[in-house]
Design brief:
65% helix; mainly alpha
C-alpha cells in the first residue's frame, strides 16, 4: 500500500471509527437477544450495540437482516 493511501486510511479510521464499551445496558440487550433469537454471541453483541445506541446497522448478514 502506498504511503499516501495508508495515511488516508489512517485518517478515515481515526475520524470515522468509534470503539464502544460494552455497558451494562448493552450487556442486558445481548442477553435478551440470545434468549429470544438464534443469534450467535458476536452477532448479538453487534445487534445489541446498534439497538442501544439507536444506530443504523448496515449488514449483508442474513441472521441480522431477519432480526425484526
Amino acid at each position: 500500500m502506498p504511503s499516501d493511501e495508508e495515511e488516508k486510511l489512517h485518517n478515515f479510521i481515526e475520524d470515522k471509527i468509534l470503539v464502544v464499551d460494552l455497558t451494562n445496558e448493552i450487556k442486558n440487550e445481548i442477553i435478551l437477544l440470545r434468549r429470544s433469537t438464534k443469534l450467535k454471541l458476536p452477532d448479538s453483541i453487534i445487534a445489541a450495540t446498534s439497538i442501544i445506541l439507536n444506530a443504523v446497522l448496515f449488514t449483508n448478514d442474513d441472521h441480522l437482516l431477519n432480526l425484526s
